[in-house]
Amino acid sequence: MHLPEIKNQIAFGFEQLLNLFYPNLCIVCEHRTHSKEELFCLDCQYHIHPTEMYKYQNNEFTAHFKGRIDLVNGAALYYYVKGGRIQKAIELLKYKNRPDIGIRLGRFYGSLLKKLPQYSDIDLILPVPLHSIRKIQRGYNQSSLIANGISESLNVMVREDILKRNKATYTQTEKNRMERISNMQKVFEIEKTGLIQNRHILLVDDILTTGATLEACASLLIKSGSVKISMVTLAMAT
Fold first, then answer.
1. How confident is the model at residue 13, as a pLDDT?
2. How confident is the model at residue 21 (pLDDT cuts 50, 70, 90)?
3. Mean model confidence pLDDT for the chain
4. Domain encompassing residue 229
5. Spatial separation of the C-alpha atoms in residues 5 and 18, rounded to whole Å
6. Phi, psi torsion values for 200, nearest 5 degrees
7. Residues 55 and 89 in one domain
8. β-strand 188-190 against 163-165: which pairing, if any?
9. Are residues 60 and 158 in the same domain?
10. What is the mean pLDDT of residues 59-72?
11. How many structural domains does the chain have?
12. For tag attachment on the chain, is the N or C end more exposed, with fewer CB atoms within 10 Å?
């Protein structure tokens, strides 16, 4: 057996040993996946499919903001269905101390966006911020984790020192769109406005429901500088 073949056999054996003690697990149900690149097991893959909104500059996501925010691009990676597996993944991320889910889904999302020319001129990635109290309670900002995963794939800097949340808000689950928009007024502020001038900014959040939070952030950024805005979320409520 030649030396390259021996090296390949050793590498394969080492990988198999790692899989034995540290198996690749589905981020939703923790069943085994076939490879470390796969996020979901075969059963979850059967039920989970990307929306492909990211391929088109006009889609359901961008239509949600039409007439209110002039978006360059916008997309949700998955549909958020109550009781569905993406809902479980996001709940694990937000409430069950699973920051790895945000990073891994962000990397995957970024790998898809990287292939498209419309996302090639992004200058900065800004996650929708959490209030400092909630961030301490949770231990992290889930949107920042997603943003950092996207950043790894796009090779674009994430800045968490520009968009700030200066007011904690109560849960908005039961509010309608107008109530949410009213609730989000004066919640955010911009620091270091010079850093956003003439930039194409990618806003990142976990889920689009009414869009009030993203709209508040985007409106403030547009008022604060000559910027172009794109938005992405992991999911969009149906």
1. 44
2. very low
3. 86
4. 49-237
5. 20
6. -95, 115
7. yes
8. antiparallel
9. yes
10. 95
11. 2
12. N
Shared-domain flag, residues 32 and 86: no
Residue 20 phi, psi dihedral angles, 5° rounding: -70, -45
The model's pLDDT over 122-173, given as tens digits with 9 standing for 90+, comes to 999 999 999 888 888 899 999 999 999 999 999 999 999 999 998 766 555 5
Of 11, 28, 47, which closes a domain? 47
Q: Is there a single domain that holds both residue 94 and residue 36? A: no
207 contacts 215 by C-beta, under 8 angstroms: no
CA 210 vs CA 41, 75, 102: distances in Å? 31, 14, 21
Residue 214 maps to which CATH number? 3.40.50.2020
> Is the same domain home to 86 and 29?
no
3-state DSSP of the chain = CCHHHHHHHHHHHHHHHHHHHCCCECCCCCCECCCCCCCCCHHHHHHCCCCCHHHCCCCHHHHHCCCCCCEEEEEEEEEECCCCHHHHHHHHHHHCCCHHHHHHHHHHHHHHHCCCHHHCCCCEEEECCCCHHHHHHHCCCHHHHHHHHHHHHHCCCECCCCEEECCCCCCCCCCCHHHHHHHHCCCEEECCHHHCCCCEEEEEEEEECCCHHHHHHHHHHHHHCCCEEEEEEEEEEC
Provide the whole-model pTM.
Answer: 0.84
